[in-house]
Design goal:
By secondary structure, the protein is mostly beta strands. The protein has one domain: Immunoglobulin-like (Sandwich), CATH 2.60.40. Helix content is 5%, strand content 50%.
Length: 133
């Protein structure tokens, strides 16, 4: 599991919202993104409107395109969801560009970040985490 921590603003009709991507996991052959979705506006409880802004597509760092299957708590629930990538992604995925239909895609890293070990020379300087990809 890889923490993602990416906020994606979305809009559909008179409803706006935010999707917060929590994590990416690749289990055997399936790729899963966990997320929380919140909406507000006159039609925020209309399932057709809410599901329309949860309509994701994705492209990975290799140029592969994915559709997303939505699984979750339902419109009346607290908004926790799992997006399953179709077809199943290959191992070693570095990032996904997520598109919600309107606006520019949002890039989400799917690459684990591991902390670097400080050396005597670098112990004084702050270091950015190193990517494992």
């Amino acid at each position: 599991m890889v923490p993602v921590g990416q906020l994606v603003p979305v809009r559909a009709g008179d409803v706006s919202g935010e999707i917060y991507l929590l994590s990416y996991a690749r289990q055997v052959s399936r790729g899963l993104l966990t997320m929380i979705a919140r909406s507000c506006g006159p039609s925020e409880h209309d399932p057709d409107v809410v599901f329309s802004f949860l309509d994701f597509a994705a492209t990975d760092d290799q140029g592969n395109r994915y559709e997303m299957g939505l699984h979750g708590s339902g419109v009346s629930g607290p908004g926790e969801w799992i997006l399953r990538l179709h077809p199943d992604p290959p191992p070693g995925l570095r990032w996904l560009d997520l598109s919600t239909g309107a606006g520019e895609p949002t890039r989400a890293s799917t690459c684990p970040v591991r902390p670097t070990r400080p050396t005597r020379r670098s112990a004084r300087a702050a270091q950015a985490p190193a990517s494992t990809c």
